[in-house]
Amino acid sequence: MIEVTNLTKKYGDHVAVDHLSFQVEKGQIYGFLGPNGAGKSTTMNMITGYLAATEGTVTIDGKDVQKDPEEAKKCVGYLPELPPLYVDMTVEEYLKFVAQLKKVPKAEQKKQVEEVMEMTRITDMRGRLIKNLSKGYRQRVGLAQAILGYPPVIILDEPTVGLDPKQIIEIRDLIRKLGENHTIILSSHILSEVSAVCDHIMIISHGKLVASDSPEGLQKLMSGSAQLELTVKGDFAAVKSVIEGLPEVDMVENLESDQEGCVKVRVISGENVDIREEVFYGLAEKKLPIMEMIHKEKSLEDIFLELTQDVAQEDAVESVDAGQTADSEQEEKEETEDVSNL
Do strands 200-205 and 208-213 pair parallel, antiparallel, or not at all (unpaired)? Predict the structure, then answer.
């Protein structure tokens, strides 16, 4: 549905988006993750044609955003981070105006405006001036204008910003419902939001795509060593002796226990290995009862931090290398000048 190839945006010497390439399949909800300043909004603005790319191409349903902008934009409904609202209009006036701009057939305009107001729960606000609405309701009006015309692709940049917890749940439910008939790209830095509604996650850091997979696939990819935390009735030496004798166990650590007569340990095993059953039977055989067992897995937050920190470190190393190269070149130049002066 959307194909992004070698997409780049530069502001002078600053590279906001660095040769991004990815594909968005039809009928999926994609989460676009990244820390503040990672290039999410810039990428979305280029995909929708709001911003021209320095390099690269974006095609939506086979239509190039730069070469055939009108046809490409017909396929997209967009909610920017700051909704494009005319605050001196009422909600209903504004949505009717947007329907006309989107060239919704005149016979369908009233029906569609009513439907999107109902979807976004703003029907009661239809006669209110937008400037008198709370931030949360303005966000809903912005979402309503993105849905109008029922485009095949809906792009949402931070759609739940400014909403209260109840409204956030309602918008998430709406996004899931829209995902049944639309392709959706959802930008956010709220990881729980993305994991709750998205089929596929793309993580961007410093303008580069660092991961693209399903939430489950990312967890599997980044799982690394498996960890168990156990609270066992007995002493540490006996527990450690049993567990270290099991295959695939790399390390047993003694943790502080708040239960009298019990020991708490962390067991680290090989990659993608589940040793819970072996640990249970091994300790049961030695009459060391397990009071608690927790299987620790990396959360989406852990994965996000690990991936974005790796890119930050790589960029820091590149900057240092570039600085050292520049310093070396300057030193060589000064030495040459000194020799020529002699």
Answer: antiparallel
